[in-house]
Amino acid sequence: MADFEELRNRMVDEQLIPRGIKDPRVLFAMRRVPRHIFVGEAAQDYAYGDHAISIGEGQTISQPYMVGAMTEALDLHGDERVLEVGTGSGYQAAVLAELVRHVYSVERITALAVQARRLLEGLGYQNISIKVFNGTLGWKEESPFDRIIVTAGAPEIPAVLVEQLTGGGRLIIPVGDRYSQMLTRVEKRSGEIMKTELFPCIFVPLIGEHGWEG
Q1: Distance from C-alpha of 135 to C-alpha of 112, rounded to nearest angstrom
Q2: DSSP code, position 207
Q3: Coil, helix or strand for 58?
Q4: What distance in Å separates the CA atoms of residue 143 and residue 14, rounded to the nearest whole number?
Q5: What are the tens digits of pLDDT across the range 67-115?
Q6: How does pLDDT run across 124-175, given as a tens digit for each residue?
Q7: Handedness of CA 138, 84, 205, 58 (dihedral sign)
Q8: Is position 126 within any domain?
């Protein structure tokens, strides 16, 4: 039987810290959340490896470093309301829930949303809301959000998501073509939109009205 706590700590010590993830709260959350719970029994022994893992429905759970890097890029302090576009396995939502006041997560694939909700409730998270919906439209009823994280690659930054940010808010999103993207930070400051390219990445495509056609 694998020692998942040891594997989790090794993941942080060998994959995240050497690559520059510094935020102690992010590192703590990554040490705490049981990633193996979110990958299915057959893949649990590989859950803490330095790679993405298929979760079915053509979707993946992102590489641990990518989860850490995107979470750190959000610059979280503890009281934020965060929108996640693309619930997937629920792992990223769990990491966020360790760090913020409330996570609102949108998933277009019903089966994934139902599974993620079951896992997250089983782990005792009470500050995560999941909605089956076209994530490219955000979650207008709960907006504005202090932070938005998009876990799929978009052809461009959806204006509707920028509109759902608070003043001073921040959006992290992969932008590019279907096969490679640039992780991009969007900040809303005094009515102006500031865009910063962070690093290259590869995500499954963001499907929906303001993403790619399915």
Answers
A1: 14
A2: B
A3: coil
A4: 37
A5: 999 999 999 999 999 999 999 999 999 999 999 999 999 999 999 999 9
A6: 999 999 999 999 999 999 999 999 999 999 999 999 999 999 999 999 999 9
A7: negative
A8: yes
Calpha distance 101→128 (Å, rounded): 9
Q: How many domains does the chain have?
A: 1
Cα distance between residue 113 and residue 21, in whole Å: 29
Domain that holds residue 45: 4-201
| Residue 191 included in any domain | yes
Task: For residue 183, give the CATH number of its domain.
Answer: 3.40.50.150
Q: How confident is the model at residue 2 (pLDDT cuts 50, 70, 90)?
A: confident
Provide the 3-class DSSP secondary structure of residue 24: helix
Please give the positions annotated as active site: 62
User: Is the Cβ–Cβ distance between 174 and 152 less than 8 Å?
Assistant: yes
Angle between helices 64-73 and 24-32 (to 10 degrees): 140
Q: What is the pTM of this model?
A: 0.97
Name the residue among 209, 137, 198 with its Cα closest to residue 173: 198
Whole-angstrom Cα distance, residue 6 to residue 180?
33
The reply to whether 206 falls in a domain is: no
Residue 151 in any domain: the answer is yes
| Spatial CB neighbours of 15, under 8 Å, sequence gap ≥ 6 | 50, 64, 65
3-state secondary structure 80-118: CEEEEECCCCCHHHHHHHCCCCEEEEEECCHHHHHHHHH
